[in-house]
Amino acid sequence: MLIFKDTKFIKSPFDSEAELEQVIVDNYEYLFGPDSFYLPKTMIKTADGAGTIPDGFAIDLGAKQWYIVEAELGHHDVWRHIAQQVSKQIVASSQPSTKQKLGDISAQMYLDDEYTKEKFSSLGIESVDVRKVIREILKGDPIIGIPIDIIPNDLKDWARQQRLKVKLWIVSKFVQLNNNENIIYEFPEEFQPALDTEEEDKPQKANAKYTRYDINIVDLIEADIISIGEILTMTYKPKGGRAKQFHATVLEDGSLELLDQQFSSPSNAAVAGIQAAGSDRKTVNGWTSWKNSDNKTLADLREQLLNTTLTE
After folding, report:
1. Is the model's pLDDT at 199 over the cut of 90?
2. What is the pLDDT of residues 268-281, one digit of tens each?
3. What are the tens digits of pLDDT across the range 156-197?
């Protein structure tokens, strides 16, 4: 249950798979990251026709990855529904004609949508290189991305059997008590999947106490990698404007203090900064944005903790 003043929001099932699909279209960056853009199925027709089109494709320019996206409801049968559906989509998506179509649509989005164009520009990708960059990303294997309301154990088993990488995210719905029209959707913090087969398959780091997704700033404090009161810096250059610097203070509980607010998520703190600078971006990866006085990002410090050998 979520409570805001005297208002209670209770967890509720999605009305339909279509509702969840639309929630993903509207909020895809909170799953696939701030450098991603989304191609919903309404824009795409695969070579094999109906039944082989996933709910969408996400392309992450920063990580140079692409996703076959299939939103699912946890009560659907894993083996007879989800597995069969995704298998068909993988085959169709691997066709050269499908990849050509994705490249064409992506290039058109770059031309038509300023929000998408800004993502290319922020990564230093010039207009002449857009098709080349997309083509290179699509040469790699896709990741199967499944946003879902609950994760049955069978789905975890199926995911771990796949040759392709699989990521599962939990997206939840809450409705106001006695007012079903007032709805809140809950997304994971920091783009964190509930299951990531790539992360599971990686060789174990020296510090086996943690996985990458488990680490928070408070863990870096406990490991003496970050100090309470330390100042982290983020530089952001608005389009057509001057670069601005933001300074956040690390608090005892691992949150960041910025602009007279406290943020438990580094990414939410980064969003607050860039929006204060005039950006309309909804997401930023705070782990790669905030740096310490040695010019190391939080992501660098996280890797430092993962690679630290535990001692008695």
Report:
1. no
2. 999 999 999 888 88
3. 999 999 999 999 999 999 999 999 999 999 999 999 999 999
Exposed/middle/buried for residue 106 (C-beta within 10 Å: 0-12, 13-18, 19+): buried
Q: Where are the domains of the chain?
A: 2-201, 212-303
The strand order across the sheet containing 256-258 reads 231-236, 244-250, 256-258, 261-263
| Residue 112, amino acid | D
Q: How confident is the model at residue 48 (pLDDT cuts 50, 70, 90)?
A: low
The span from the CA of 47 to the CA of 275, in Å, is 41
For 68, other C-beta atoms within 10 Å of its C-beta total 22
pTM for the complete prediction?
A: 0.86
E-assigned strands of 166-299? 166-170, 172-176, 179-186, 195-196, 231-236, 244-250, 256-258, 261-263
**Token digits of residue 259:** 């602009």
Looking at residue 129, what DSSP letter applies?
A: G
Candidates 88, 95, 26, 25; CA nearest to 57 is 25
Q: Which residues contact 292 (CB under 8 A, 6 or more apart)?
A: 226, 230, 232, 233, 301
CA distance 160 to 59: 23
